[in-house]
Amino acid sequence: MATDPYAAPRARVADVPTAAPGGDFVPEGQAVAAGNGWQWILDAWEVFKRQPGMWIALIVVFFVVFFLISLVPIVGSLAAALLGPVFAGGVIAGCQAVRDGGELEIGHLFAGFKANTGKLVMIGVFNLLAWIVIGVVIMVLVGGSMFAMMSGEPSAARGVASMMSMLLGILIALALSVPVYMAIWFAPSLVMLNDFDPIPALKTSFAACLKNIVPFLLYGVILFAAAIVASIPFGLGWLVLGPVLAISIFTAYRDVFYVG
Predict the structure, then answer these.
(1) Is 66 a member of any domain?
(2) Domains: count for the chain
(3) Fewer C-beta within 10 Å: the chain N or C terminus?
(4) What digits encode the pLDDT tens for the residues 43-93?
């Protein structure tokens, strides 16, 4: 076939992530205003209100599936860690469908098993390995001293020291878990909607979260307070907060990675 010498040059796009419809995609993510952390939740609430019954049903099915998976000894816990991002990708696909004017369906929850499954599972592998490393670090730093204290005769001083070691372990776990959550937060969205490979998705998610520490702090404080309120009436409030939290990951992704 003849080539038009006057045609505009074409870039090689095989390795360039694709953009989900709507707005201009910012591949590296952008910093947004501090107040946007609250806006992510408000936007998620608006999405939830369109089909509250279906969103609640989808989240209930999600938790039931994960509960059944976790009942399988040893293998169940591993499978839950690996498949978490796959189901997250399905929820994100459902959010995108609603944004495009479609209707949410239970089938969206399993969309990650139809597209980019391997990439989403690899994010689960990273998640699993990261938590194993965190567990090993805590055991090395705290486990030895706790074992030494517990092996001696019980006393008030030993009890206080044991409690301090446990508190130190919790603080270390929280500190180490933050970068893990940052790497994973947007990764399923980037894989599912923009066809990122797993490692670039994890790196991009971490960098995007780092750019938006202040909005995420506000977002976290509001959700923490909401979680307390949702847990009071026998945890029934989570039937609403659960879907809103899931949707807010998508609304934050749209805000950070899209202009317009």
Answers:
(1) yes
(2) 1
(3) N
(4) 999 999 999 999 999 999 999 998 899 888 888 888 888 999 999 999 999
